[in-house]
Amino acid sequence: MDIELEKLYETEDAEKKRKNKLQQKIVIISLLLFGLIVTIGVATPLIILLNKSDADVTKPALLQGEIDSTTESPFDPNQFDEYQSLNLNSTVLLEWPELSQPIHETSPIKAHVLETFNSFSAAATYVNLSYSRITYLEASSLNEFKDLNILDLSHNHISSINPITFNQLKKLQSLSLTNNSLTFIYPATFKSLTSLFKLDLSENRLTRLDSPALFEGLEHLDTLDLSSNKIEFISPNIQAKFSFMNFGRQNESAVFSKLTHLRVLSLNSNHLTRVKPSVFKGLSSLKELHLSANRISMINSTGFYGLDELTSLHLDNNQLSMISMDALNSLGKLELLSLSYNNLVKISPKTFTGLRNLRHLLLDGNKIVSINRNAFKNLTNLESLSLESNQLTFINISLFSNLAKLEELNLDFNQLEYLPKSTFKGLSSLIDLYLSFNKLSSINQTTFNELSHLKRLDLNNNQISFIHPLAFRSLNASLEKLDLSFNLLKNLNRKIFIKLKNLDSLLIHNNQLTALESFMFSDLKKLELLDLQQNQIESIHQNAFDGLNALRWLFLSSNRLTTLEPKVFSNLINLERLDLDDNNLIQIEPSTFNGLTRLGELNLFRNNMTAYHPATFNELQTTLINL
């Protein structure tokens, strides 16, 4: 053993000697970490970050974006560009078979190993021990890593941590313990981590957060992830009542009360059943609170008390059937509120009263049957509203009248049967409107009169059989995409599409149209996509496609066409694809495809053609033709 070590140190080349010494240190530290500090079954990759002076190797991809935050913060992962890394794995250990054996107390090499380990670990700033089958962290396990900035202990089997394990890590900024087996954390375990910025405790087995000292010392913590545990209880702020038993006793602080700089808190996927009074008190800097996928059925009126800076609140996938009128009113700076996939049935007039800065409201996937006409009255800054997948059969007149900044409204998958005249009154900024999968049977003349900036209108999968000729007249300068597919339309008045000069996509497939009249689309100068497949079209008039000079894709498959008028497509000078498959075509005139010089694909299969005139495809020299 000593001979092998001497060979490494006695090289003639100085540079080679330095590198060999470094390799020896690497092996020794990995041995200690695998053999002395933790119980490990299989050797796995270990990454240690050193100062540039200690190693001259390139930074691996693992370091790229290791710590990432969507919000601005003083912690910049790019600061670690000043360091380099070394990747140790089982291959390196196999090069040193004599060092891969366990070190015994009486081993003469132990003193040298410890000496080398101590000098090496003092320079380490990033240590990755993930996937190492670690089960327990001893009190002195990490004492030598005094300059450590990032420590990754994720994906191990750690079930407990000695409360003084991290006492020497004063410079640690990121600690990951995700995907372990922690069921309990001793109070003050993190007390010495005064520089810690990010703490990840997700995917463990924690059930309670009941000690005010649990996060003591973490005054600079910015991000705390407790998601995917089994947490069912969080200690709230308790006011001590006067009695002889508690004489002189101070109020018991909430578990998060010391985290005054915390900005992101995730409690997703736990077992919480309610938001208790003042449970988040003390989180005066919190911006994002994630409570999705719990079992919350009740929010106390003071549950979010003290979250004055909160901008994002996620309560989706819970069991809320109602929300207290005062539960959200203290969140004056809230910009995003997700209440999707709960059991809400009604929205009362004062539910969102205090949310004057709210920009995004998600209410999809509930059981809402009615919404008070004043429910959104104070949401004057709202930009998007989703009510998808509820049970709405009607919408109160002027429900949206104060939402002048709303740009997206989703009412898909409801049971709406009729849209009154003033349904969308006040939505002067609306850009996207989704009304698919409802039970609408008609569109009247004034339904969309207020929507002068609408660009996308989705009406697919309804029961629409009638559209007033002037129904889209107020949208003539803005509408770009119109979806009328999967309805019961049998005919279309050509006035329906008059002056829709910016429309680029028109979907009318899966209806019951029988014919296309002349000049039906003549005002659609910018139309690029026209989908008419899966109808019952038997005839196309000679000038049906006049004016469609920008059209690139025309789908007419699965109809009942038997013949085509000569030069019926001649005006489609920019057409790139034409689908006529699955019809009953028995004859095509030689001039039918004249003028289609840019056609790239023509589909004619599944028809009744037995022969084609020799001149039929003369102008389609570069076209892929499927017969």
Verbal overview:
- The chain has about 625 residues and is mainly β.
- Among the domains are: about 1-120, no CATH class; about 490-625, Leucine-rich repeat, LRR (right-handed beta-alpha superhelix), CATH 3.80.10.10.
- The chain is about 10% helix and about 15% strand.
- The protein has 4 helices and 37 strands.
- The strands form 8 sheets. The protein has a 23-stranded mixed beta sheet. Strands 4-6 form a two-stranded parallel sheet.
- Helix 2 (about 15-35) crosses helix 4 (about 110-120).
- The longest helix has 24 residues, at about 15-35.
- Residues about 1-15, about 20-30, about 30-115 and about 240-250 have low confidence and may be disordered.
- Which class do the helix and strand fractions yield? mainly beta
Mean pLDDT: 82
Q: Name the overall outline.
A: elongated
What are the low-pLDDT stretches, counting only 5+ consecutive residues below 50?
1-13, 22-28, 30-117, 239-251
Give the CATH level 1 class of the domain at 489-627. Answer: Alpha Beta
Remind me, CATH topology of the domain at 489-627? Answer: Leucine-rich repeat, LRR (right-handed beta-alpha superhelix)
Count of individual beta strands: 37
Radius of gyration: 34 Å
Strand content: 15-25%
Brief synopsis:
Helices cover 8% and strands 16% of the residues.
Topology diagram in text:
Blueprint: H1 2-9, H2 14-37, E1 46-51, E2 83-88, H3 90-94, H4 110-121, E3 126-128, E4 136-137, E5 150-152, E6 160-161, E7 174-176, E8 198-200, E9 208-209, E10 223-225, E11 233-234, E12 264-266, E13 274-275, E14 288-290, E15 298-299, E16 312-314, E17 336-338, E18 346-347, E19 360-362, E20 370-371, E21 384-386, E22 408-410, E23 432-434, E24 442-443, E25 456-458, E26 466-467, E27 481-483, E28 505-507, E29 515-516, E30 529-531, E31 539-540, E32 553-555, E33 563-564, E34 577-579, E35 587-588, E36 601-603, E37 624-626
Parallel strand pairs: 3-5, 4-6, 5-7, 7-8, 8-10, 9-11, 10-12, 12-14, 13-15, 14-16, 16-17, 17-19, 18-20, 19-21, 21-22, 22-23, 23-25, 24-26, 25-27, 27-28, 28-30, 29-31, 30-32, 32-34, 33-35, 34-36, 36-37
Antiparallel strand pairs: 1-2, 1-3
Helix pairs in contact: 2-4
